[in-house]
Design goal:
The complex is a heterotrimer of chains A (about 800), B (about 150) and C (about 290). Chain A is about 30% helix and about 25% strand. With about 800 residues, chain A is an alpha+beta fold. In chain A, strand 17 and strand 18 form a beta hairpin. Chain B is of the alpha+beta class and about 150 residues long. Classes of the chains: A alpha+beta (about 800), B alpha+beta (about 150), C alpha+beta (about 290). Chains in contact: A-B, A-C, B-C.
């Protein structure tokens, strides 16, 4: 009779509200007297700000206020450093965080220069055109290598360099490995910028209540609690006077965990100053400039192997594009360093990076958060090595996998949580074999030859990766049995579509044996739960889910203790099932949980000392280190050699995210992640010119793959439960996106293997591929052959 | 954005050179109701009216400075223009060579222009073509003006 | 992304439209389906002082066949044309092409006349009109006139329309016996602006030799491009694989494609050639099948 929810395909609790238009998004917030904000943003990537004349804007009817940096007075200050540099020996780090409105200088196209508050957004945008800014353009810093060269313009003069950081991490002795190697592969790899492109852009609405003396802020943030704490401090309020609500949010993917964006600081400040609610909704065009992005890195990588294809060592030096400021520290490049190692045994490793300031939008984690780069470099080196050794790409991976007996595995290098990299559990070889079987690898190799004779170019790619998930510091949850018998769960992090309202309900429903639809989950409201960090790094289900479990277990104990007292029996005699407690074998002596909850909160009489009222408990979960998810992706593509257009025919994911709470949610995450990954590989690239101008600032030219471009992913799940949390959970939010670029490159090269095309840049466009085909050393194209006859 | 090419004018180099420095002639060569005034030695300021297809014709402030002048064969033109949907700045190198035994002039031009602001972010499909089209129209208009001058002179 | 302020008019007759155009001239923009204009206005690239909405103007959306001629009102929705039996009979090339125009939602609102008047160099409908040698009826305050597709498209977004004229009707002669047609394009994603596209009509005589060919391309020039040299080379010969390849090579030499962030000029040229090689055989196949009937 015990309900099983964890592991079941439960339909989502939140879908009815979403589908019938009863879900609140920030732009839905409408309050009497509400004003609307718009921001004047820099047109120049790098320029001195000689003057900002807002007088004409102030005269426009409907405009209530116009603010520049001067008007902010003491409130103007650079944002906090969100992630300090990791304690790596010899690290160099220059901190430069974003400012609310530019003062003296603008450092990227889109940096806010002035804020207009008006009766509606139309008037506010009209007023933006009234503002006259005197820019003195400077040379823009765009190319990473040129940025570090002598004589380059400087993004932040005070450092005397554009280098934001330098980090070296190593284990073993690479030089010795190289000397002993039979084969050394060295290549330059480029992984370029992309946006998160969440369906909902950012938005902030705020209202100051002078009677209650409190501030309410609705924000599309992935981290409502830190935002509340920061705003309270900056505005001179108690944390309890500020409520931040992240209601339904249409996708986060990382940029919404960036905190203290200018708009987040200024909208609440303006609401307090003007005594009227203020709202700002980012439009899609702004999103391309004003919301953070990710991905630019250039790697010079080298792999040393023996003649059997075993890795002896890897040496990687790379440049990482920070954008104009580095508030998020070095999370992304550290992830790149660590994730490069993958599921492989790498006896010697030397990884060195320099993070570089450029005059482009700030870089903070986007789904994958730097892991794709590490995976791309490793997988490409293995593929190139395999080709050189005449070995099958799957075989070379088999030979280098870490064996299951090695877990947990400790490394010397530091991960993004500042602890040494640590693999807690995993079993890689079975995943590889499953993927190979599912994609029909051996049959495909035969098919390929037959198809090539017909002039069709089909290729297959198989890649693997590991992903550190579920890191600390901690999250918390409070579980309460309501007198109605329904159960309420509150936790601090936010939800942007991951299905937390269902996943957390499943965990609690199973622990308390109630119907999952009767568990009501609240997330992202600091008034409901005020301790925690946020949704990022594939940790929500793991860390908050574990906290929900811990709190539910405590409530279960209280239920049994209270029931024993009220029903006059020993605790061991009490059964908890289907939302009721009963004495075993005596069905008349039973109560519903709701009735029991009422008993637990008496209006009269005495209670025993030390009793806590109600059936409620709060618990926190903070893991020592993350849990290691892993997977293998396999892809089949067809390339049209005349047009260089690529069609993805099949996509297989074999994934290990530990114990699954809800397979349906996991499949959704993987499918969506793959779409993101395919975008990274073949469609999405933010194109900046040499003066830092973004040339594709709309979906007309920044191409997102559509449902017609992404196949339905065929999935298999393996489960190696995580030892560090009671449910054995691992994260899954980013997995789909991480290795897709590497799989794509391998598959396309494979389709054109007789031509000897080598792909070292991602994303790839058909034009680039066509140029690679033309320049390839291999046989000429069929139609050229005919023309010569 | 690079705009480069050649254009042959049906007149001698000295006449073409003079034409290219004359603000009235330049105004006629520029798009829309252009107003250009000479404000210093080799420095011009004014505005042009530009609109193509869906983009509404609007006024763009313009300042042009001629540098490195070697009459009648070479100059470099610094351009700075700002309008409601963006800005453009850059320089163009212009070389004039005699052609047709001195009766005609071959102009070679190479312009490297930066385009910024809103139009840079959403207009990339068309920016190159618009620039080429405007350049061609301008050169044709200059050619027409040259013919008029020569006819009057004769 | 809110548009700048504008004056809005919603006339009910063509005369009212021309009267408004005459009064406001270049300050006014006509609103047909709005699928190009409204986004441009939201981006504030377009800031027309006056917007004249054609939605309620009587008689602009009629579709009829008259003695071997298909007459389509300018406000005919693209989706209506796509599904119309009359258009399937009178301009099957258009029916084959329309599914490549953006997405169904856009075609529900977008109009045939709007696309022609907008003359985006990457648009499919103008190229199809060129291939079909369509004729356009224009109305101004002074009266009406007719312009052939060959003279109508004058440059980058340029058309023969004066500032006070509107396009009222498109006239397409029915395909002659023994004619064929085909369309093809290459785009990054379905529904995107094409990197290159080819719309072709051909005709075969009784001996199976090519008696007519019109090869129109999109996205390779300032407007739709008619590759007349390549078409002329096909005349009088049999439509063999070699003839098709020669035509494709001729097209590649004839065009001067632009470069942008999505495709270099060389890649566009390559695509144009590949498309001609793939589209012409289908057109000839249809011509053969039609001749047999």
């Amino acid at each position: 009779m015990t309900r099983r929810y964890v592991g079941e395909r439960v339909r989502r609790n939140e879908d009815h509200r979403l589908l019938t238009g009863h879900a609140l998004f920030v732009d839905d917030v409408q309050l009497p007297g509400m004003l609307h904000a718009a921001f004047l943003r820099s047109d120049h990537a790098h320029a001195l700000l000689r003057g900002v004349d807002v007088s004409a804007a102030l005269e426009r009817p409907g405009v209530v206020a116009v603010y520049t940096a001067e008007d902010l007075g003491d409130y103007w200050c650079p944002g906090p450093l969100l992630v300090p540099p990791p304690p790596v020996e010899g690290i160099v780090f220059h901190e430069a965080t974003q400012v609310p409105l530019a003062k003296d200088k603008v450092r990227h196209v889109g940096e806010p220069v002035a804020m207009v508050v008006a009766e509606n957004r139309y008037v506010a945008e009209d007023a933006l055109a009234d503002i006259v800014v005197d820019y003195e353009p400077l040379d823009a810093v765009v190319d990473l290598e040129a940025a570090l060269a002598e004589g380059s313009a400087l993004v932040h003069e005070r450092f005397g360099t554009n280098m934001a950081a330098r980090v070296v991490q190593r284990h073993g002795d690479y030089r010795r490995a190289r000397d002993a190697a039979d084969v050394v592969i060295a290549r330059r790899f480029l992984y370029d910028r992309g946006a998160a492109a969440a369906m909902e852009n950012r938005a902030v609405a705020a209202v100051w209540d002078p009677l209650g003396v409190d501030l309410t802020v609705w924000d599309t943030t992935q981290a409502p609690i830190p935002i509340r704490n920061g705003l309270a401090r900056m505005l001179g309020l108690l944390e309890s006077q500020v409520r931040v609500v992240a209601p339904f949010v249409g996708g986060g993917f990382g940029p919404k965990i960036m905190m203290f964006y200018p708009e987040e600081l200024l909208v609440p400040w303006a609401a307090m100053r003007l005594g009227r609610p203020v709202k700002w909704t980012e439009d899609r065009q702004e999103n391309f400039f004003a919301t953070t992005q990710e991905r630019g890195q250039v790697h010079e990588a080298e792999m040393a192997l023996d003649r059997d294809g075993r890795i002896l060592g890897i040496h990687d030096t790379f440049l990482h594009d920070c954008g104009a400021y580095d508030p998020y520290g070095l999370t992304i490049p550290i992830n790149s360093q660590c994730t490069l190692l993958g599921p492989y045994d790498v006896p010697a490793y030397h990884s060195e990076f320099r993070a570089v300031f450029t005059n482009k939008t700030i870089v903070t984690p986007v789904r994958g958060a730097g892991r794709q780069h590490g995976v791309f470099v490793m997988e490409r080196l293995l593929d190139i090595a395999a080709r050189e050794l005449g070995m099958d790409p799957v075989e070379i991976r088999r030979r280098n996998y870490l064996g299951a007996e090695l877990f947990p595995k400790n490394f010397d290098i530091l991960y993004q949580d500042f602890a040494p990299l640590y693999y807690d559990s995993g079993n890689y070889l079975p995943a590889l074999e499953t993927a190979v079987r599912m994609i029909g690898y051996d049959q495909l190799r035969e098919e390929q030859l037959r198809l090539r004779a017909e002039g069709r170019r089909v290729g297959v790619g198989v890649v693997s990766y590991i992903e550190g998930t579920g890191i600390g510091p901690y999250e918390g949850a409070r579980v309460t049995v309501d007198p109605s018998g329904r159960v309420r769960v509150a936790t601090g992090l936010g939800t942007q579509g991951q299905g937390h309202y269902t996943a957390f309900a499943q965990i609690v429903a199973e622990a308390l044996d109630v119907d999952v639809e009767r568990v009501h989950v609240v997330t992202g409201d600091t008034r409901e739960f005020g301790w925690g960090t946020g949704t990022f790094a594939s940790r929500g289900a793991v860390v908050a889910g574990s906290a929900c479990h811990a709190a539910a277990v405590k409530v279960r104990e209280k239920i049994l203790a209270m029931a024993a007292r009220v029903l006059g029996a020993a605790e061991e005699q009490i059964d908890l099932a289907d939302g009721r407690v009963a004495v075993r074998g005596v069905p008349e002596r039973s109560l519903s949980l709701g009735e029991l909850a009422s008993h637990a909160n008496p209006l009269r009489g005495a209670v025993k000392p030390g009793t806590e009222p109600g059936l409620e408990a709060t618990a926190y979960f903070g893991p020592d280190h993350g849990s290691t998810a892993s997977g293998v992706h396999a892809m089949v593509v067809e390339v049209d050699p005349e047009t260089a257009m690529v069609e993805i025919l099949r996509y297989v994911v074999v994934h290990d995210c530990g114990r699954l709470i809800n397979p349906q949610l996991v499949e959704g995450q993987v499918q969506g992640g793959v779409a993101h990954g395919i975008g990274n590989a073949f469609y999405e690239k933010l194109v900046y010119d040499e003066q830092g101008q973004l040339q594709n600032a709309s979906f007309m030219d920044y191409l997102l793959p559509t449902a017609m471009d992404v196949p339905r992913v065929e999935m298999a799940h393996m489960e190696t439960p995580a030892p560090m949390n009671p449910l054995g959970l691992k994260g899954v939010g980013e997995a789909g996106a991480i290795p897709a670029g590497a799989a794509f490159a391998q598959a396309v090269e494979d389709a054109l293997s007789d031509l000897g095309v080598e792909i070292t840049e991602i994303p790839l466009s058909p034009d680039q591929l066509w140029q690679l085909i033309r320049a390839a050393p291999g046989a000429p194209l069929p139609h050229l052959q005919e023309a010569r006859r | 954005m690079i705009v480069d090419g050649e254009h042959v004018f049906p007149g001698p180099r000295e006449v073409v050179w003079a034409l290219l420095q004359d603000p009235e002639v330049l105004s006629k060569a520029m798009p829309g109701a252009a107003k250009l005034a000479l404000v210093g030695d080799g420095a011009y300021e004014g505005s042009i009216r530009v609109g193509v297809g869906p983009v509404t014709a609007a006024e763009w402030k313009l300042s042009v400075t001629l540098e490195d002048r070697v009459a009648p064969e070479h100059y470099v033109m610094q351009v700075d223009s700002k309008g409601p949907i963006g800005f453009t700045r850059g320089s163009a190198t212009v070389d004039l060579a005699e052609a047709d035994g001195g009766g005609a002039t071959r102009m070679r031009y190479h312009a490297d222009l930066q385009v910024g602001g809103k139009v840079a972010g959403v207009g990339q499909r068309l920016i190159d073509q618009v620039a080429k089209m405007m350049t061609q129209r301008g050169l044709n208009a200059l050619g027409g003006e040259l013919e008029r001058r020569l006819a009057e002179g004769a | 992304m809110k548009p700048a302020p504008f004056e809005y008019h919603r006339p009910s007759t063509v005369d009212e439209v021309t009267e408004l155009l005459a009064r406001h001239g270049p300050d006014a923009k006509l609103l047909a389906g709005g699928q190009s204009l409204v986004p441009a206005m939201n981006f504030r690239l377009a800031q027309p002082a006056v917007l004249i909405d054609l939605e309620r103007v009587a008689g602009l959306a009629e579709l009829r066949e008259e003695g071997g001629v298909l007459r389509m009102g300018a406000m005919t929705r693209q989706r209506a044309a796509e599904r119309s039996p009359a258009v399937a009979r009178g301009a099957p090339l258009l029916v084959e092409t329309l599914p490549f125009v953006a997405h169904p939602q856009i075609r529900n609102r977008g109009t045939v006349g709007g696309s022609i008047a907008h003359a985006d160099p990457a648009a499919e409908i103008p190229a199809v009109m060129l291939a079909l040698d369509a004729r356009f009826h224009l109305r101004g305050p002074g009266g009406s006139r007719t312009v052939g597709a060959g003279e109508f498209f004058t440059g980058l977004f340029g058309t023969a329309l004066e500032a006070d004229e509107l396009l009222t009707e498109v006239e397409i002669a029915a395909p002659a016996p023994g004619s064929g047609w085909a369309f093809g394009e290459v785009s990054r994603r379905h529904g995107d602006y094409a990197l290159a596209g080819v719309a072709a009509t051909v005709a075969l005589d009784a001996a199976g030799r090519c008696s007519g060919a019109r090869i129109a391309l999109l996205s390779v020039g300032e407007g739709p491009v008619l590759a007349s040299g390549a078409a002329a080379a096909l005349l009088g010969g049999e439509p063999t694989a070699d003839a098709v390849r020669a035509a494709a090579d001729a097209v590649e030499r004839e065009i001067d494609p632009p470069a942008d962030i999505h495709a270099s000029a060389a890649y566009r040229r390559q695509l144009a050639g590949v498309l001609v090689r793939r589209v012409l055989p289908r057109a000839f196949e249809r011509a053969r099948a039609a001749a047999v009937q």
